[in-house]
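Quick one, probably user error.
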């Protein structure tokens, strides 16, 4: 079924929404396409329950949002994209939730995009699970499950004021969560990071907060800091890591309000749950109040604030005519690709 406001239950080669508001794209099977669903300067649309197969046929991305706001992208299955399962370029206030993504490059790639909610997605990617870059700020990345990616979540290139919360990152070839390159005032909190080479890496970034994370089973280092100072690391659990923490050219804060972190190789006991002697990372980095029991505290309410949740219109309520462009041509992927500059970032 397809009309000006809805596309439902069809097998097609690509859906383009150009300057469209209030359209619903649902239950489509997308194949032989450069981009499965592309939204350009479009808002208040819904893309749901679609399937895009990039393993059998070339697919640049499953869903691309460009200069598009307040859209709802949910419950889609996006396999084998060459660049990203979902791309977000210059697009704000979108809701990207409960998608299943298996990508050859990045699961969700965001550039110059603010106040988006990326939550409840299941992601397997070759390079990055979720990548916030190029001044993507005030985004919420929450409750995603990311497995077997080189890096689970990366925040870099001046991306600030993001909340990375309650994600599960396992089996990464390199790092669970990275904050790099002039990215500041981000909060990385209540994440479970297990079985990566490095748990959290902060490089050339300041004034970030790492708290309430479980960092477990890292084959090299639990928390790595390189030329990164004035970051707060508090109330994390460091468990069964080859090395708990390492600082290179960095001076950070490892405790606050009389509480530091739990280190499973800290041997001093205490009746009040706080060690009498500091845990020493190096001379410039001391946890003065190491916890002697695993931290099971929950996040304070102030740390649970999230980005505003966008509310896309349901297509049945839209009265303004919309234009839905459905491309059946086998050249659709080529035509789409010509509209973009190549956006591959450097590997970090």
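Nope, works fine. Designed sequence:
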């Amino acid at each position: 079924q397809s009309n000006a406001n809805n596309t439902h239950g069809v097998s097609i080669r690509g859906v383009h929404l150009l300057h469209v508001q209030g359209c619903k794209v649902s239950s489509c099977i997308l194949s032989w396409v450069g981009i499965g669903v592309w939204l350009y300067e479009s808002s208040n649309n819904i893309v749901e329950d679609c399937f895009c197969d990039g393993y059998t046929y070339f697919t640049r991305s499953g869903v691309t949002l460009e200069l598009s706001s307040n859209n709802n992208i949910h419950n889609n299955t996006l396999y084998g994209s060459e660049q990203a399962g979902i791309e977000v370029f210059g697009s704000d206030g979108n809701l990207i939730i409960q998608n299943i993504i298996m990508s050859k490059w990045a699961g969700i790639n965001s550039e110059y995009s603010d106040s988006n909610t990326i939550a409840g997605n299941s992601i397997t990617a070759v390079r990055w699970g979720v990548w916030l870059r190029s001044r993507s700020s005030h985004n919420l990345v929450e409750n995603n499950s990311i497995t077997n990616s080189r890096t689970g979540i990366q925040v870099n290139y001046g991306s600030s004021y993001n909340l990375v919360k309650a994600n599960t990152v396992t089996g990464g070839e390199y790092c669970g969560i990275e904050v790099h390159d002039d990215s500041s005032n981000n909060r990385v909190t209540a994440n479970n990071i297990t079985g990566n080479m490095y748990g959290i890496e902060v490089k050339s970034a300041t004034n970030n907060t790492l708290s309430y994370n479980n960092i477990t089973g890292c084959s090299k280092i639990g928390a790595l800091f390189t030329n990164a100072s004035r970051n707060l690391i508090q109330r994390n659990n460091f468990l069964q890591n080859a090395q708990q923490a390492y600082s290179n050219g960095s001076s950070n804060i490892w405790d606050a309000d009389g509480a530091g972190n739990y280190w499973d190789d800290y041997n001093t006991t205490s009746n009040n749950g706080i060690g009498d002697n500091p845990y020493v990372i190096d001379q410039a980095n001391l946890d003065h109040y190491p916890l002697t029991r695993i931290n099971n505290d929950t996040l304070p309410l102030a740390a649970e604030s999230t980005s505003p949740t966008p509310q896309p219109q349901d297509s049945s309520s839209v009265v303004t005519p919309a234009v839905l462009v459905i491309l059946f041509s086998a050249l659709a992927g080529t035509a789409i690709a010509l509209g973009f500059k190549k956006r591959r970032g450097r590997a970090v």
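Residues 305-348 have pLDDT under 50 and may be disordered.
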